[in-house]
């Protein structure tokens, strides 16, 4: 696992955007981007929008798949993830709407819709880079503690903690949906790159468990330890409880020096 520890949320968001943009440019003719919602990736989306508007970062050939969506909320509901993604990202870039995929929480047959979602991902040759956040109990997407580590896209009952965590977005806790469609851990693990974003001291303990603790279904993000390429970009507060924090910073420094030498050698022939 590659871990980048940045001074604050702004630096963390810029680094994450640089990683996404670099991978997009490598696969400019076909790039499948997995997206997440919540407050953590907003800075990433703002920076990608800036790159598009000021540097010409091109989203015209990008295909997106969102991790999850609440069951029972229409796409125009202000707390739906459809609404979130268009307001915070899609409306501001040159993406083709037919290339946007978000689970339909209003589907008549939710199980059939989940199977079709999996098929659409496979038909597009899988996800190249999947953006992830981490929940207060260590879940990724809506794969709550106890979720199967081989799970696929499905309907998941949300834990009381997740409902309480998300209640800040609703007028009352009673309005928070109790079910959601979510990509499974097995689905997520098939992405070529997993980009985990974590910020704030409230996530420090669970982030440490996810990257340095044992792999367990009680912290579903811990499965990312087995992924061929997981990149975690975090701020100092989120990294506060890492036992190997100094080592991760050393690795980043040495990697930067190596990249600089390679670039200089290339310029000099």
From TrEMBL:
Entries under Gene3D superfamilies matching the protein: 3.40.50.1360
CDD domains linked: GlcN6P_deaminase
Cellular component terms per the entry's GO annotation: cytoplasm
Pathway(s) served: Amino-sugar metabolism; N-acetylneuraminate degradation; D-fructose 6-phosphate from N-acetylneuraminate: step 5/5
PANTHER family: GLUCOSAMINE-6-PHOSPHATE ISOMERASE (PTHR11280:SF5)
NCBIfam families assigned to the protein according to its UniProt record, in alphabetical order: nagB, PRK00443.1-4
Protein name (Swiss-Prot/TrEMBL): Glucosamine-6-phosphate deaminase
Taxonomic lineage: Bacteria, Candidatus Ratteibacteria
Gene expressing this chain: nagB
